[in-house]
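Student: Please help interpret what follows.
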Amino acid sequence: MINDTWFGVSVRTIQTRRKKPLFAEAMRRGQARGRISVRRAQWRLLEAGNGTIAVWLGKNLLGQKDTMQITGANGGPVQTESKADFSLLSVEELRVLRGSLSKLNGKSTL
């Protein structure tokens, strides 16, 4: 059995006692105090100029989020269509390509 070094009792003892209302309420109060302590420490970091914690608090407390907008030329939509340049292929490469496409379409090139 694993011993919890903070309380000096087994994990099982804590789990069993949490089922009792008085102990469960004491645990909830302790957790709430712990959250308050963490929040105070975060505010101290924010006030000291920590930019990372400022972003984190903004996202978690104020609902802020990172957004990125990508646009195409002159602020227009991004073009996703591309056209193949077959002018670079030899006559033999074009024949092979045509045969492969015909097979995909279920047609014979013979």
